[in-house]
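Researcher: Next sequence.
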Amino acid sequence: MQNEINTTLIIDAVKQIGKQFLDSYKKKEIPTTKEAFLVQLEEIETTCFNFLKPLINQHYPDIPWVADDEFDPDAQLQPADYGQYWLCDTMDGAVQYIQHLPGWTINLVLIRNGQPYFAVVYDPVADEVFSAKQTEGAYLNGSRIKAGLKADTDVMVAVFEYGHQAKKTANFEQKIAGSVAHLIKNFGVVRNYGPHALQLAYVGAGRIDLFLQEDLDTHNWLAGILIAQEAGAEVLTSDGQPWIWGTDNLLVAGKEIAALYLTSLT
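Model: Next structure:
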């Protein structure tokens, strides 16, 4: 049975672990070897997962957990075989955290019937919580948000992303180079900010006008996809088709902005 969840409780749990990480932010030395880097990355993932899972399981013991593995593309092609489950991206932007940079978030999404049902993206540095529940809108610190409505591409901010897993997309480098070149040609400002879900949430808040990625990164996207979608953004493939789980590219923007981008491709 899929009971309703206490969204305030879930948001508070995500904020608690986010604030713990904020307390230790910039306290460790920036690693200078791959081995040291991987040790810090593992510590982040273990600390976050081991905090959230038992805390939330006190209230929802029958909802299983699936840890995000962004380095395994096959695991991202379809939902896990559960009616509902928590998918925890322990820290999106962990590289920034380790490097003493802003732009890292704690993300948690409840997948129900193969679709994102409830999502939280918490940015501890800014103390901003983006959240959304299916059919109930998207929120920033409790206030409703809407995707941007700009009409002039000269003042639009577009972002591009790429994943870290092994690449299976044919001509991956050429696709990335081509898409970035096209964005630079057609949009006033083009950036790569880092944390995927936060950038998608920023689309929902009108801070970023268009998000584009040309390779598979499903688990990094899901929380942000729900927030952007509930804020009124279009969630599409890079050639304008409706996005479905397992598609290896993503375009997210307000309806009119997405249409402008797709028109520029022809």
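Model: The domain at 7-144 is CATH 3.30.540.10 (Fructose-1,6-Bisphosphatase; Chain A, domain 1). The helical segments are 7-23, 34-57, 94-98, 172-186, 196-205, 218-230, 255-264.
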